[in-house]
Amino acid sequence: MPGPGQRAEERLQRILARAGYGSRRAVEDLIRAGRVTVNGRPAILGSRADPAMDRVAVDGVPVPAHPDLRLYKLNKPPGVTTTLRDPHAARSLGSLLPPGPRVFPVGRLDRDSEGLLLLTNDGDLAYRLQHPRFGVEKEYLLEVEGSISRQAIRSLETGVELDDGPARALRVSGVQRRQDRSSLRLVMGEGRKREVRRMLEAVGFPVSRLARTRVGAVELGNLRPGEVRPLTSTETADLYRAAGLDRASPRSSSRADEVAGDGDLQ
Known about the structure:
nine-stranded mixed beta sheet; elongated; alpha+beta; Alpha-Beta Plaits
């Protein structure tokens, strides 16, 4: 084990294979093709790097290669409280977390909501995915009471006034109307507390079901309720690119704790 101030270098093939870029043979082909760089310089077979410090990229896309990084997606079922431990909750998130290093939810979904919840131990990533300044999209599938009007949809896109300021959807799509119920998809660029539910209440159509289906380029997909799985290398790279980060910092647990308690409680 390297001492303080020493670099923990590994063979580049091992780093990329662990990050999900295929077998070592497949990674060697990437390196031979000139598609891999370390700190901006083309890699060669036999190159070594410190995955915690060096900037490794494939086709110019940063590879979050830190060996301690953990990133999962979970399909949160309704009825689960998005806290790690809560003695007053009938069922908390702790029972669904994967084994291994401690991870934290990126934002929150309220007890009655369901769908995609990201889990990580990188507090810097979690912070940027939630902060409105970075504009990482979150998509929701909603069911509302009544046949939603075109005027209500326009108001959602142009903005409605809430008690903590104006709010608007980036896009509204997939609208299906029935006499007593409507469904629609809503894309948001921020995540204030219960913002989506409050917006729909403000235009007169209370939400009866809310499911988050996407964060950035990461989609819920076919995960069953309660199921959790690691993100693929492509999903991971997409999140770091959207957050404007070129490497992972899983040691920032204090920032992850901070984000786990803030915002996006839909």
